[in-house]
Amino acid sequence: MLSEQAIVRLLESRGLKLRGSLTDEAPSGIIFRGSSGGLSGAQFWRLETEQGPYCLRLWPAEHPTAERLAWIHAVLQRAASAGFTLAPVPLADTAGRTFAAQQGRLCQLEPWMPGEALPVGSPSAELVADACQRLAEFHQAVQPPLQAAPVLEESPGILLRTERLASLQDPAVLAGYRHALSPRIFPAAYLLASRYLELAPQAFGGLLAQLAPARSLRVPLQPCIRDVWRDNLLVEGDRLSGLVDFGAMNLETPAADVARLLGSLALDDAALWQAGLAAYQAVRPLAAGERQLIAAFDRSLVVLGGFSWLDWIYLEQREFAEPARVLARLAELLLRLETNVLTNR
């Protein structure tokens, strides 16, 4: 936990002044928000300053590295320079640094974005379309300069998923998961995890048939968010008002972001998928190879995504600040596995 004095110093290094005083009887303007509903391990503070509200983000000790975070911030600055306003750009200190080290972790100050977290339940077609349009605008804003000839490469995400699937097809690996599952570890997750582990291997063959041709595709790579899903969206009515959490950003095909966003918002609703894809392509048309990759990424999430949670819960035995959200993610993945993948092997 950062001290109030450390937070004040961070603000002052960026020309910001906390509203009120630490010695006042009134609240100091430093509001700890915990994980703010996320599952990344980051912590957040809302800071009320004389210049307006700001967010202090304290990254997990494990990631990102200073080099990676500097690159992420440079991409966000490029997006802002191109006119994209829905991503918070971290503030630089007087030396031009956009992050600082505190207690062995990196932290940054950024504007507090307007809007609220997406409510539970199915979003409207208007919101899905707007979110996809804004994602396309972000991709356009951070794409390489047009004068540079695009380099066509394999999707790193598809390669990783192909390797992950190959490892899971080893009977010894699956046996290791079965052995690790225990009702004594996160008891509320046990039935969901057991059912997922029972069903997912039955979908491996269908996923392999989809990943094999996807792996051979060569597509342009560019900065992509890679973790753009409903919990990282802020909305005002049926309009997207902010994108937050860019810690997973890396070079990838935009198809990965489209699949992640629509898989999270639309699940298996064909009409919502159609609305989202149409809105995205109105800004940034998708090549045939990218459309093929979207399907492969989405199916991979459903079939393989639960294994990441099995890793974190049973192999690493992590503790979660909001276990209910973990259960909701597992339940959603299991529902999609049952209703979609296993009926279309």
In brief:
The chain is an alpha+beta fold and about 350 residues long.
Descriptive account of the structure:
The structure is a single chain. The chain is 47% helix and 14% strand. It has 345 residues and is an alpha+beta fold. It folds into two domains: 4-112, Phosphorylase Kinase, domain 1 (2-Layer Sandwich); 117-341, Aminoglycoside 3'-phosphotransferase, Chain: A, domain 2. Strands 1-2-3-5-4 form a five-stranded antiparallel sheet, with helices on one face. Strands 6-10-11 form a three-stranded antiparallel sheet, covered by helices on one side. Strands 7-8 form a two-stranded antiparallel sheet. Strand 4 (100-102) and strand 5 (105-111) form a beta hairpin. Helix 7 (204-215) packs across helix 10 (288-315). The mean pLDDT is 92.
List the helices and strands and how they pair.
Layout: H1 4-12, E1 30-34, E2 43-49, E3 52-58, H2 66-81, E4 100-102, E5 105-111, E6 116-117, H3 125-142, E7 152-153, H4 156-168, H5 171-180, H6 190-199, H7 204-215, E8 219-220, E9 222-224, E10 233-236, E11 239-243, E12 250-252, H8 254-265, H9 270-283, H10 288-315, H11 323-341
Antiparallel strand pairs: 1-2, 2-3, 3-5, 4-5, 6-10, 7-8, 9-12, 10-11
Helix pairs in contact: 3-8, 3-9, 4-7, 4-10, 6-11, 7-10, 8-9, 8-10, 10-11
